[in-house]
Amino acid sequence: MLLPFLTFSVGLALAESSDSNVVCEAPFRAIGPRCLLIDTSIIGPWDEVRQFCHGLKGELVNMHDANTLHDIFLFIKENPILDSTSYWIGAYDILEEGDWVWSYNNTRVRMNTPLWGVQSGRQEPTGGTYENCAALNTDYFYYVFADNCEASNAAICAATGNSVAAKPADEEEKISPPNRECPSPFTMIGNVCLLVDAVKENPWSDQQLICNALGGHMAKIQDANDLGDLYTYLISNEVIIDLWLGGSDSRLEDTWLWEDDTEVPRGTPFWGAEGSGAQEPAGGMYENCLALFRNDYFFFHDDRCDRMKGVICQYDI
């Protein structure tokens, strides 16, 4: 049964709007471009929490747009009272083991990076027939983990139907790829024109010069969906080395910037975890350059800039 361990009104009040461009009907509030309710006052099994969302004319949140996870992560970290419990989301494989779908329309869930978390070197889901519902795991930086559907977690509901005055991100028209050609030796990976060099390993600064000589720059991965498309490409092409990206905090410790001085996104679902369990970046003043780590499913890690790695270059079109 549902267990209200905080007052119901407190749970609703915590979901304050952080995006004035999105208009939502109460009790939902704008979190990124979505109308969501993050509620810690209700806790219970997956199906009962889902019914709670239905009662509000909503549904457990889907993440067709992987950036939704980043928006939720940032919001939780900005509101520490929310940062102590795991949350059910609308993904499950109850209908067919291993076939994870979103509850609101049974479309397939993106697997692997960037949504699914890593525990003891294995990427979720790992629970088999005993864990058929998905939650954002508070112990693993709110990455998606499989859980037993009878476990007790809190709710993240998304507005549906007439409860939202702006379309959720997954219902908006898809952005068309650029019309300009992605020149050789670059190739389109998702919506980005990239070159993956997994043959020549060099320090970060040397790889920067190589990308510049090709008319591009080191890759800037700002969108979680692009990271997912890149992961799929790397796995399908059997890439087995770390790869430099164009991020660094060399100029000011812990201020991570791309080469164009825009900020590198922090937290989930971009950055992985280091050996002690802390979320990256965790190398302090000794590790000032950004790479995708093959041993951590190509999530972001900081590392020493003089390490030898491959590179991903980007050509802007």
Automatic annotation (TrEMBL):
Residues 31-158, 189-314 form the C-type lectin domain. Keywords: Signal. It comes from Macrobrachium rosenbergii (Giant fresh water prawn). The keyword Signal applies. Residues 1-15 form the signal peptide. SUPFAM superfamilies: C-type lectin-like. This is Lectin 2.
